[in-house]
DNA sequence: AAAGTAACCTGCCCGC
DNA sequence: TGCGGGCAGGTTACTT
């Protein structure tokens, strides 16, 4: 589900709602979600602590506590973090049976971890330690230090297809299936092109497309598809669906040339493209040609 | 190095 | 109406 824009939206919402709140109790209904430490330690450490900072790194959310501990979320495919004020109910479209974890605050409000497919993960570690998963992440695509030179440097010498390179979190952190499709369409590049086959001009278009697409999607508070699975902290959908160009449009036409879009599979993920506007597909040479 | 597959889960949609 | 297959925003492990 959530890629950089969705996770960034939740992080921003958390900063607004849960900062300086004291956790007084925790309820765990699905222990499997918590990867470290044990459930008992998890509860014992969190009880009585204040959330004093929230950050995002790639698709991970880090909540820093006053005790020097750090609560980390990865939302997997369908994870939601929801906030419910005292005596208020969240959006009724969200199914309560998938509420797996409750954090009760002193003021009567609560933070809920909800996850239909249960692929999400939660850790509680010391803030001065780093999760190996986070340590190995690549560039933050919206940071100023991520320049065109840096982007070209990680792509231009790699043989793999450009879509997989973009989705590999060790190269760039936060791009998933939706935004990989969108960004390649905007840049007019076929998803199966090899990284080392891209011209300087193509790399430039792709770099600008990554920056502008992700920025717009953050401004729109992320993308909620027809199934309405992604929600922000208040249970509300994101608005990027209004702006999405090709992702999910199985019977749609290209917004640029009007021809039918096509869907291929790359690493068993549906990949949307316009065969006309992204026609520079690599030529497969026959043996003994 | 790169590409493919399966695994972890639940729910929904489609075709028969 | 019911059932099976395929698919869904992610990541990892393992195999070719």
Task: Please render the helix and strand layout as text.
Layout: H1 4-17, E1 23-28, E2 34-36, H2 39-46, E3 51-57, E4 60-65, E5 69-74, E6 79-84, E7 99-105, E8 110-115, E9 121-126, H3 132-135, H4 148-155, H5 162-167, H6 177-187, H7 200-219, E10 262-266, E11 269-273
Parallel strand pairs: 2-9
Antiparallel strand pairs: 1-7, 3-4, 4-5, 5-9, 6-8, 7-8, 10-11
Helix pairs in contact: 1-7, 4-7, 6-7
The chain binds a DNA duplex (16 and 16 nucleotides) through residues 1-3, 6, 32, 59, 74-78, 98, 115-121, 133, 158-161, 164, 167, 169, 176-179, 223, 225, 227, 229-230, 247, 266-270.
Report on this structure.
- The protein is 25% helix and 22% strand.
- The chain is an alpha+beta fold.
- It has a five-stranded mixed beta sheet with strand order 2-9-5-4-3, covered by helices on one side. Strands 1-7-8-6 form a four-stranded antiparallel beta sheet, covered by helices on one side.
- α1 runs parallel beside α7 and α4 (148-155) packs across α7 (200-219).
- The longest helix has 20 residues, at 200-219.
- Mean pLDDT is 94; it is low at 285-289.
- The structure holds a DNA duplex (16 and 16 nucleotides).
